[in-house]
Amino acid sequence: MRPAPDRLSINTATLRAQWSLAEIVDGLARHGIHGIAPWRDQVANLGLAASAARIRDAGLTVTGYCRGGMFPAIDAAGRAAALDDNRRAVDEAVALGARCLVLVVGGLPKDPRGAPVSRDLGAARGMVRDGIGALLEHARAARMPLAIEPLHPMYAADRACVNTLAQANDLCDELAPSDGAALGVAVDAYHVWWDPALEREIARAGRAGRLHAWHICDWLVPTTDLLNDRGMMGDGVIDLPRIRGWMEAAGYEGLHEVEIFSTRWWAEDADRVLDTCRARHRDAS
Ligand code: ZN
Asked: What is the number of structural domains in the chain?
């Protein structure tokens, strides 16, 4: 079955080269799109209160706030600073009325210039577990769900050392057993489509009530850039309708958030991008 058009949400990274947050909000309203997932830098540019008011006035559902995470650091002071920043992200997500705060958990600890200073991936994963565990208290008090987003393993060193949905589910089981409302997952097709355990792990997350977000785009063959060559739905090899079926069978009732980091699409007219998102959401996702 085709997805209902009102399920479409747009992650603002998709249009970040063309439009400011205010322009994106206006554009979504113009195109009859009901969901948005803003990034912190764009919200900071417009101002938190102004962003919240503008999004609320446009009647948009905030399908997620991007992003918290980046927990590993070389020393305790760095990890404490990351935790403070994550608490602020929780508060901002509350002000925006977001459905969840998306966590891109971070990779290996880095020096101030961004170069990895460790090969100990296990230790980094321990820092992620401890960081999420520490953040949970604040997030629970604020009633803001945290959504761990597993990233494709090609990002394990620099962006996220949680790389499969099973790993994210294990973290949730350890830190918040039977509290999927407090700690869950964001399933991004781009990152997990290849995983042979995906259907099983989506079902597992659904049973625990922890499916907080569904991000869509496509995997191009060939992919020419690790970060900024994501495809429009229908242009690549991900069987999005099939995976959406697994999400829905697992109880997911939220929106479908288009998140496309792409130098190709950033070079297109923004209104044309939104037209294409609507069409491909209908026909290819
Ligand atoms: Zn995502």
From this structure: 1
